[in-house]
Amino acid sequence: MNEAGQAGVVIYDGDCSFCRGQISRIQAKDTHDRFSYLPRQTPGITDEYPALAEGDFNTGMRLIMPDGVIHVGADAVYQIARRLPGWRRMAWLYRVPVLHTLARIGYAIVAKNRQRLGRTCDDGACDITTPSKTSRPS
Question: What is the pLDDT of residue 87?
């Protein structure tokens, strides 16, 4: 595929460091620029993709296909993985009913806790608060 984003547009939470990290991993595998990537906080994004205004974005990333179909969460991950080198061979596992269900449950847990998972020492999560010393009576 020659044109960037020809396989779809990935919409993710740009305020979430965990999400940005995962998108970086996907982009590293997307060596042929099959997808375009936009944070959901992009101004005017709901004008371009009105369906994004519907539903709860906390359920996961969105993959908007060229035909307008929107895949959410684990379904989006599967659709992305089956189009990327190195992940294609594993993507078929998502089609196994039990694994499909487990993937959706796992994704839901990660999505719900993504802010905690994305904490790094750079964002202050590792700061240690020490109680102020109080003088003891002698």
Answer: 83
Q: What is the total count of domains within the chain?
A: 1
Q: For residue range 50-68, what is the model confidence (pLDDT) as tens digits?
A: 988 887 788 889 999 999 9
Ramachandran area for residue 52 (φ above 0: left; ψ -120 to 50: alpha; else beta): alpha
Is the separation of the CB atoms in 62 and 107 below 8 Å?
A: no
**Element counts in the chain: helices (H) and strands (E):** 6, 4
**Is 37 contained in some domain?**
yes
Please name every residue paired with 38 in a beta bridge, in sequence order, or none if there are none. Answer: 11
Q: List, as one string, the DSSP characters of 82-104.
A: TTSTTTHHHHGGGGSHHHHHHHH
Give the residues across from 51 on adjacent strands.
Answer: none
In a domain, 109, yes or no: yes
Residue 124, pLDDT above cutoff 90: no
CB distance 57 to 19 below 8 Å: no
Residue 35 CB-half CA count within 13 A: 27
Q: Supply the range of the domain harboring residue 66.
A: 8-121
